[in-house]
Amino acid sequence: MNVKLKVLTAGVLFFTGQAVMAQKDSTKTQNIEEVVVVAYGVQKKSTLTGANVQVGAKEIEERPISNVLQALDGAGAGIQVASGSGQPGDGISIRIRGTGSYSVSNEPLIIVDGVPFPGNLNSINPNDIESLNVLKDAASTSLYGSSAANGVIMITTKRGKKNSSKITLNTSTGISSRFIKEYDRVGPADYYVLAWEAMRNGRRTSTPAEGIAASNAWASANLITGNLKTNVFNVPNSTLVVDGVLNPNAQLKYNDFDWAEPLIGVGVRQDHNLSFTGGNDKSTYFSSLSYLKEEGYITKSDFERIGLRLNADSQVKSWLKLGTSLNASVSSGGNAVDGVDSSSSFINPYSWTRRMGPIYSPYQHDPVTGERMYGPDGEVLYDAGAMRGPDAASGRNIVWETLLNNNTTNTYNAQGNVYAEMKLLPELTFRTNGAYNYRGTLNKIFTNTFIGDAIGVGSASRTAYFNRDYTFNQVLTYDKSFGNHAFTALAGHENSAFLRDYLYGYKRNQSVAGAYEFGGFVDNTSINSQIDTRTKESWFGSLKYNFSEKYLLEGSIRWDASSRFATDVRWASFWSAGAGWVMSKENFISNIKAINLLKLRGSYGEVGNDALSSWYPYQSVFDLGYNNGTEPGVILSNVADPSISWETKAQSDIALEFELFNRRVRGTIEYYNSETRDLLFPVPTPLNPGIPGNSIQTNVGNVTNKGYELTIGVDVIKNQNVKWTVNAYGTSYKNEITKLPQESIINGSKKLMVGKDLYAFWLKTWYGVDSSDGAALYVLDQTLYPDLKAADVRTVNGTLVTTKQAKAKYEYQGSAIPDFFGNISTTLNVKNFELSAAFNYQFGGKIYDTNYAGLMVSYLQGGAAHVDLLDRWTTPGQITDVPVLNSVTAVEANAGSSRWLVDASYVMLRNASLGYNFNKDVVKNVGINSLKLFVSGENLWLSSKRQGLEPYQSFNGTVNPRYSSARIITFGLSTTF
């Protein structure tokens, strides 16, 4: 936050908030000191020795976001974001300075108003946020010890100000729509021809003695009856495609093949916030009431939240200050299957609308006239898919099922923080905090009786989570200054407990239509409950010293114990040391007018990670409920290493900060090196010992991240009427595995090996297409398959290749880690107008595009086809990268390989806004202090290597047919009274 200062006399500065010292240097422009939030307190930015990125309230308030973490997309160097799904209310996934863990969480620690926050941040109104601070290095994070390996995000909510009162209204209305365009796919006419061609070529392969005319006739006769089942043209099945050409007399009986239109549209977004802030000499308060309703662009997906906040502080005695932060919210929403965990689900709207062949309609049509059919009451009749090809999900209908099924979640959140701050001595302060977080969620799912998973019976499930979190800390701070010396010593204790109650029930056989609760179902199919808890206790301390704010020293240490580990390895220590030198205060620099600030800082420290998915990783556990009739049964579900303990991340950081030319140019150049030791890792075991998952979680392996960060800000124009500012961030880093328990471990499309990175692709090497016969070619693995005279082995341009994907050579094919990524933003103020825009960019890195691969199959049997299939090989000598369509060799052509890798580079207009501030003289006549009208947008434009690709979907370079992020455009106003 920026501290407000009042000049009373020359050279003496006072402020209306917390005390800070301003730089007294007559040779330099007077600067208002900035105070930033740090671990267990605040600190002048100029005295920091750690890496701290701050996002203020102004950057958050007018953006149409429902989860405050979305404001960190493009917020600073070293912050890498995988965009959340388009499901309203969802947040984003964040990596701070790369990926340092393999099987445990890489998400940063969230701190809200000084205490850890384990809940979902969609429970907090973004308009209530004063600032977000991202702590990136050990010097800034080590006071959080075992929770800080992935960085720390400090969230500070707004509080009242003394002797002032204000009412603020922010309201906006807008629309939500699809942002990522769909892949280009062929239409009905081309589709039949491509399917016919694959069948004909397959016939030629399987029956080589048959003449070409006979094979053509066979494909024409079997195209519909033997494969696609449906003919949407007005010519007989056997004459629809003749000799590879669509019948010139063919006309569509209907053109009703758009599955996306009834599911994907435009949603309305409303966001209204009313806040009251004020106070007197003794007490201050901030309170707010908020309402958000965001409809997703996919049918029956939405998010609605009502929130209430009260923050209050009171100086009850000269030595005692009390305060509280209370937040409560109730939210509800309809959930669409986003595809990340349900990529193959029949009710995944993205997968279905993308992959359904362009000859099948959601609706029933008269087979003769082609007219859409309706029921006796005029209701739409949906097609259950009996006449579809094998790849077109016969017996299912995503539109019908979406309309009939229900999936909703209701969430109840309550967070309460209270503190007492006692001034024991002028230099000695004791503060104790207590926090309680409650989050209760109830998910309700109904599956209809007409079509789908519960056809004929219907089903209902209920999943409830009741999460409670308690945190208590006590912090003693000694702050002393004398002469040019300033000391701050801190000592504290913290303990926390997290409890989770889980309840699940599932019933089938609906008794009465319209009855969706359990009482309306007959069969008790499944019921289960579970309670889990974990605890943590910590002791910590720090010491900070500076001499004339020129020479800076900091050190900290923390001891943590986690219930995730056995008692003899439960405790671990984490620490850091940092130093800074403000060179611009030295005599040899202070007289250089062009230099306002030149600061060198560095740090080293160790932090930890225990964020395993298991609550009890050091214990071998059994699952209950595997009963044999009335006889109880249990099953071994996890074999543990009882000595399992902390991951430790050792981090070093060095940076140069600068401000030049009357602070019109600002920036930071930074280098960091972090090594995660004792990596928590699922070590593979032999298949025969009966160990669940064939692995045991233990501490093995090391991984490093090394990178550079660049931050630059420039006031291009700065005068009374015009101010134009440009800020840019850039990051480049390398990840490397430096130790493993065995030579290599293969996991999907990745192969972990010393000297490689966690996201290095290990795939069969695609060579291309043989121009002589259109065969798909792969580089031959000569070590495993030395028979170079085999029928499937060829030599092309001096390279040994094979047409059998099983004989292909596996090789490293690049990495998902980009070469360089960052953000460029600009703000232009012209009198009362304000324009801002922010672009995200990424250069390099790879994505394995399975969505595209699914549209490039060489044998169409009802699934959609990408337009690139039109470039398939057809004629000897043809140069193309799309193999011949052939029903017999399709498996060889479409195997997983480097063929499906694509460059992950992109440029994206992440957000933009245009606002107009009315002159105060104009609005004060109607009793308003300020009034601003604005239009704001998120996810506005994207340029990537392929239409349909979502290049920022994940960190590991994989994609899913998911509910992709939305484009949101809102119009609003902000006013104060």
TrEMBL record:
* Species this protein is from: Chryseobacterium salivictor
Q: Name one Pfam family in it.
A: Plug
Its keywords, alphabetically, are: Cell outer membrane, Membrane, Receptor, Signal, Transmembrane, Transmembrane beta strand, Transport
Task: List where in the cell it is found.
Answer: Cell outer membrane
Q: Which PROSITE patterns match?
A: TONB_DEPENDENT_REC_3
Instruction: Name any GO cellular component annotation.
Output: cell outer membrane
Q: How does it sit in the membrane?
A: Multi-pass membrane protein
Please state what the protein is called: TonB-dependent receptor SusC
The record, for InterPro entries, names: Beta-barrel_TonB_sf (IPR036942), Plug_dom (IPR012910), Plug_dom_sf (IPR037066), TonB-dep_OMP_SusC/RagA (IPR023996), TonB-dep_OMP_SusC/RagA_CS (IPR023997), TonB-dep_rcpt-like (IPR039426)
Keyword Cell inner membrane in the entry? The reply is no
> In the record, which residues are listed under signal peptide?
1-22
Residue limits of the TonB-dependent receptor plug domain? 47-152
**Similarity comment:** Belongs to the TonB-dependent receptor family.
